[in-house]
Amino acid sequence: MKFFIDTAEIEEIKQANLRGWVDGVTTNPTLIAKAGKPFFDVIKEICKEVPGKPVSAEVISLKADEMFSEGLELAKLSDNVVVKIPMCEDGMIAVKKLKAAGIRTNVTLVFSPVQALLAAKAGASMVSPFVGRLDDIGIEGMDMVSQVIQIYQNYDFDTEVLVASVRSPMHIQISAEMGADIATIPFKVMQQMTNHPLTDKGIKMFLDDWNKAQKK
Ligand code: G3P
Questions:
Q1: Could you tell which of 4, 28, 175 is best to mutate to test the pocket of ligand 1, judged by most ligand atoms within 8 Å of the CB?
Q2: Which atom of ligand 1 is nearest to the CA of 31?
Q3: To the nearest whole number, what is the mean pLDDT of the chain?
Q4: Contact (CB, 8 A) for 109 and 84
Q5: Cα separation of 4 and 21, whole Å?
Q6: Alpha-carbon distance 170 to 167, whole Å?
Q7: Number of domains in the chain
Q8: Active-site residue 201, yes or no?
Q9: pLDDT surpasses 90 at 216
Q10: Comparing C-alpha atoms, which of 134, 135, 71 is closest to residue 100?
Q11: Is the pTM of this model over 0.90?
Q12: CA–centroid distance, residue 82 to ligand 1 (Å)
């Protein structure tokens, strides 16, 4: 399972990379705004940090032709760039045109299996089902991911399922059990994955026993 980190903060990407947790990066307009630096500068800096690994950069326009030209500009920044396109009719036109131009796309803000089906039919390289935001409104986000994986397997689509809007290590565990291709994970959730109270207890016990033995 590929781990992408969901951030535009270069320091988080560096730290996660040190730990072997970065197979790619996803950003979105909110994360870019948080970074507080010009959009293209942030994307170029991230691509330099993770050479050869996919970096999603999202278009702003909602009109097909403008999304397409924004996508062409973003793709010029680096070979790693994957153009992120929001799920909408014009977005599907842009995805199809970008694919024909040899540019990879990640269809985002997907909340239903049929939206994911449309993304695959348009030729998206990746689709981003948002599980946390579904959970937030009382709908089981991981059920939707399971349905998307099943549909893609039924028709042998090569669009990768990129689980997004991840809120907890449980989202990662269930995604991995389901065979999702990728999960994009906030750095703090990555760190939470290392924690378990019995691990802490075991480390303390080993050190206490070791120190007791040194004193003898
Ligand atoms: O970046 C895409 C997605 O992961 C955003 O998730 O936490 O804003 O629902 P979130």
A1: 28
A2: 1
A3: 98
A4: no
A5: 7
A6: 8
A7: 1
A8: no
A9: no
A10: 71
A11: yes
A12: 16
